Amino acid sequence: MLKGQDFNTTYQPTWCPGCGDFGIWTALKTALDELQLDPHNVVVVYGIGCSGNMANNVKTYAFHGLHGRPIPVAEGIKLANHDLTVIIIAGDGDTYGEGMNHFISSIRGNHDVTLIVHDNQVYGLTTGQTSPTSEKGFKTKSTPGGVIEEPVNPVSLALSAGASFIARGFSGDTTQLTDLIKKGIQHKGFALVDTLQPCVTFNKINTFQWFYRRVYHVEKEGYIPNDWNKAMAKAREMERMATGVLYVRERPSYHASLPVLEKGPLVKQPLDGIDISKIYKDFV
């Protein structure tokens, strides 16, 4: 049986003291440990931002991608070797800003990856500009008069796009968040774990205390995550913020729908005897 330290490295995070990223980091390592996954069978793809600084701090294979582009990289890894557990660590700007098109496309294809979003409502690494999830009226150096646009609602957006697994966690509750990450990894298809994560330096509104007054566990209310309309109602709640698994449905994953992968992962298939002349002759 694996031990938690198997996922530790010799490097320590450089996040601000009290950052919500520490809770996600802890929950991820605990989830991998409790699932008894081997580090060499796990790949974590990181986006750019404070969340991406975790790349050196979890002992698995890692790929540190471009801003807004970790999702397609993860898809490529899964298609090349679907025996791997593929996880994405990205921020709200990464995912719901620059990467919005990839987010929607991956949901539509139901790629078997787990996306853990560090949703802190700001661009923290670049010193606190507003992000797609910033509340309307939120004032920062990039919006001194306040945000004009309505904020992106990640849960309702994922529901509208047809996601097969949607959860919302809170970095101040690592016990629940660990469970959500485990369930996301075990789900056979695209899994979103949108994680409310306070930025203690640049977001003085959405603080730990602010979230503690609002978040609640849906499972404690007997909620069953199989009704799309009920999940949408939970997503749209304003005064309270539901955490837990909000929606699950079964449908074939992308790689499971490809006949060429029925023989096994691409990286394990022989290359000899392949004739591509019929493909390229139309282009010469």
What does this structure look like?
28% of the residues lie in helices and 17% in strands. It starts with 20 loop residues before the first helix and ends with a helix. It has a single domain, classed as Thiamin diphosphate (ThDP)-binding fold, Pyr/PP domains (Rossmann fold, 3-Layer(aba) Sandwich). Helix 1 packs across helix 6 and helix 5 runs antiparallel to helix 8. It contains 9 helices and 10 strands.
Features:
about 280 residues, alpha/beta, Rossmann fold, eight-stranded mixed sheet, two-stranded antiparallel ribbon, 9 helices, 10 strands, about 15% strand, globular
Described by strand count, sense and barrel closure, the largest sheet is: 8 strands, mixed
CATH class: Alpha Beta
Categorize the overall geometry: globular
Determine the oligomeric state from the structure: single chain
CATH domain topology: Rossmann fold
DSSP helix count?
A: 9
Mean pLDDT across all amino acids: 94
By CATH's scheme, which homologous superfamily applies? Answer: Thiamin diphosphate (ThDP)-binding fold, Pyr/PP domains
H/E topology pattern: HEEHEHHEEEHEHEHEHEH
Q: Total number of β-strand segments?
A: 10
CATH architecture term: 3-Layer(aba) Sandwich
Give the strand content: 15-25%
How big is the Rg? Answer: 19 Å
Structural class: alpha/beta
- Number of individual domains: 1
Distance between the termini: 56 Å
Arrangement of strands in the largest sheet: 2-1-3-4-8-7-10-9
